[in-house]
Write a structure and sequence with these properties.
It is built from 12 helices and 23 strands. The longest helix is centred in the middle third of the chain and has 21 residues. 29% of the residues lie in helices and 27% in strands. It has 4 domains: 92 residues, 3-Layer(aba) Sandwich (Rossmann fold), CATH 3.40.50.20; 57 residues, Dna Ligase, domain 1 (2-Layer Sandwich), CATH 3.30.1490.20; 127 residues, D-amino Acid Aminotransferase, Chain A, domain 1, CATH 3.30.470.20; 76 residues, Phosphoribosylglycinamide synthetase, C-terminal domain (Glycinamide Ribonucleotide Synthetase, Chain A, domain 4), CATH 3.90.600. It is globular. The chain is α+β, with helices and mostly antiparallel strands. The strands form 6 sheets. A 5-stranded parallel sheet has the order 3-2-1-4-5, sandwiched between helices. The structure holds adenosine monophosphate (AMP) and glycine.
């Protein structure tokens, strides 16, 4: 099969490496890809939002399967564009991808179908939102832009003044553009967070092994929120018993709710959960694999990913058994100095070959470019240094041993992945 991966991050590199394991994959392209991906697949210079360009490329190159990995092109209907052209594509269509693209939609869906989530109100007017937070007078309070905001549209305000400032920056100063035309103000929840990615064909839902992201920039969960500084799988807090509760109260009800709304979801649905003292609740849905969750979940997948994609597209997911490797995986993100704020690009990366000495380690490239035989930084999150092993401790030890071999000026990474709540 000729396969086209769409996207350019660490998640896409992990997907590319997994697809290459499939005996069915004869030719793999990635658009636009990155430096690391260019060593594994043929990279094609098409903008990630260019639906027309992607479809034309797919037609010319007899693509049998297109895999749309990032949120923006999914929300913008890239899967619809492939389907209209008769090309098989993995991922939700735009109608279903709205579960991530609009928090107002997802919150209202959960309320309507009794899916456990934080209590909330929706506002389209800054004055009213400010009156509400002042009247409620409870902190912390969570302020969320409705639309996609590069993972930055959530502000946990510790004081009423901070909440007012957040509302003004989103609704009046348009910090996230039109994503902030509407906002959700919600109750602050506590408890361990769990990421559960699930394959679904719109009828059947098959959760993958669980994982845990570390979103803050620095050790001990300090510093700004990032796209994710590291992950482990499985999530130690996610017991079989909790998994069953999630299946019954969250996963199946969500799939059914999307069907009832005439928006059947096909692809990978990401459940961002919080295990609160009152049971598991949904923090957010994503319409795609998480990044860097994919980097620890996919290495544990034993079943051919191409077979799973086909089963999802053909709505035959209930027919296949999805198998996983026991043990654990850990991913440590090496980021550019300054990230998630301003950072430099184009810094040479050393030691990428040496980490091959560490058994079980693999380096997924997120923000790199490859020129004249050398790798350079090209983004905030640069590398996802990952290892799979028999236990979490061993996976962490191997991932950090691989990190030790790699260096670039300004590199920063968390030293406590897998150690915090
Ligand atoms: P999101 O962009 O929706 O993933 O939110 C980013 C992070 O904000 C989440 O991973 C949580 O840590 C935190 N968060 C979001 N909503 C809430 C909430 N209602 N209560 C507590 N923390 C939250
Ligand atoms: N790691 C969080 C996300 O992919 O949204």
């Amino acid at each position: 099969m000729n396969i086209l991966m769409i996207g350019s991050g660490g998640r896409e590199h992990a997907l590319v490496k997994k697809l290459l394991e499939s005996p069915k994959c004869t030719k793999l392209y990635c658009a636009p890809g990155n430096g690391g991906i260019s060593r594994d697949a043929e990279i094609i210079d098409i903008n990630v939002m260019d639906k027309h360009g992607m479809v034309e490329f797919a037609k010319k190159n007899s693509i049998d399967l297109a895999f749309v990995a990032p949120d923006d092109p999914l929300a913008d209907g890239m899967v619809d564009a492939f389907e209209d052209a008769g090309i098989r594509a993995f991922g939700p269509n735009a109608k279903a991808a709205v579960i991530e693209a609009s928090k107002v939609f997802s919150k209202n869906l959960m309320k309507k179908y009794n899916i456990p989530t934080a209590k909330y109100e929706v506002f389209d007017n800054a004055e009213k939102a400010i009156q509400y937070v002042k009247a409620e007078n409870t902190t912390p309070v969570v302020v969320k832009a409705d639309g996609l905001a590069l993972g930055k549209g959530v502000i946990i305000a510790q004081t009423i003044d901070e909440a007012v400032a957040a509302i003004k920056s989103i609704m009046e100063d348009k910090k996230f553009g039109d994503s902030g035309n509407n906002i959700v103000i919600e109750e602050f929840l506590t408890g361990p967070e769990v990421s559960v990615l699930a394959f679904t064909d719109g009828k059947c839902v098959k959760p993958m092994v669980s994982s845990k992201d570390h979103k803050r920039a620095y050790d001990n969960d300090e510093g700004l929120n990032t796209g994710g500084m590291g992950t482990i799988s499985p999530n130690p807090y996610y017991t079989d018993e909790i998994a069953q509760v999630c299946m019954d109260t969250i996963f199946k009800p969500t799939i059914d709710a999307m069907n009832k709304e005439g928006r059947p979801f096909k692809g990978c649905l990401y459940f961002g959960l919080m295990l609160t003292p009152n049971g598991p609740k949904v923090i957010e849905y994503n319409a795609r694999f998480g990044d860097p969750e994919a980097q620890v979940v996919l290495p544990r997948l034993k079943t051919d990913l191409v077979d799973i994609c086909e089963a999802v597209i053909d709505e035959k997911l209930s027919d296949i058994d999805i198998e996983w490797y026991d043990g654990a995986a850990a991913c440590v993100v090496m980021a550019s100095g300054g990230y998630p704020l301003a950072y430099k690009k184009g810094i040479e990366i050393f030691g990428l070959d040496d980490n091959g000495q560490i058994d079980g380690a693999v380096v997924y490239h997120a923000g790199t470019k490859y020129e004249d035989g050398k790798f350079y930084t090209n983004g905030g999150r640069v590398l996802g240094v990952t290892a799979r092993a028999g236990s979490l401790d061993e996976a962490l030890q191997k991932a950090y041993a691989a990190v030790d071999k790699i260096r670039f000026d300004g590199a920063h990474f968390r030293k406590d992945i897998g150690k915090t709540k």
